Amino acid sequence: MEDKSGRMLVFCLATLLVFSTFINVGNASGREIGYKSLGVDETNLCGPLHPDKCEPKPSHTYNRGCLEEKEKRDFMAASKLQAFWNHPAGPKTIHFWAPTFKWGVSIANIYDFWTPAEQLSYPQQTAIAGSGIIWSRYSTIITPKNWNLFSVSAGMAATGMYQLGRKIQHDVFSKQEAAMAKEC
């Protein structure tokens, strides 16, 4: 039992360490994910805020067979993959990564399928199943619909309900067997 909790603790700490490198807590707004947290000086970046830092485009049109600038940026050929990439809940946003890491809860619950039913916890499995049901519904009514959140929440609800079923079945049948043993 300690081995699993130790592994989970190491996983959580490693995840926290990775994400803490991307979070800047020293700015006025609180926490921000961006270039500042990586130690990049934003004042030297080319962009709409600092157009004077941009390199001028060459005046000649000869590009030695290279792709045009737009084709370099849009490196994804398939339109469906590009739509996924640019989706408001796509991989460029936290709305994709938070549910993706939430799969760890479902995977841990699946790993517990092989633990004895007497070691399962009613409050924990009720919280997992309830959270899965609530967030499954929520993910379908928000705009934009977050299907990644829906799938992980449905998985959490399914594994939580399965574990609750195992626990209830164990408790009910063990009491019935104990009562039958007393009668004999």
Structural class: mainly alpha
Q: Provide the succession of SSEs.
A: HEEHHHHH
* Mean pLDDT figure: 76
Strand order of the largest sheet: 1-2
Number of helices: 6
Q: How many E-type strands?
A: 2
Description of the structure:
With 184 residues, this protein is mostly helical. It has 6 helices and 2 strands, in the order H-E-E-H-H-H-H-H. It has helices spanning 2-20, 69-73, 79-86, 94-111, 122-141, 147-183; strands spanning 23-27, 30-33. Helix 4 (94-111) runs parallel beside helix 6 (147-183) and helix 5 (122-141) runs antiparallel to helix 6 (147-183). Residues 24-33 have low confidence and may be disordered.
Layout of helices and strands:
Elements: H1 2-20, E1 23-27, E2 30-33, H2 69-73, H3 79-86, H4 94-111, H5 122-141, H6 147-183
Antiparallel strand pairs: 1-2
Helix pairs in contact: 4-6, 5-6
Could you give a short description of this structure?
With 184 residues, this protein is mainly alpha-helical.
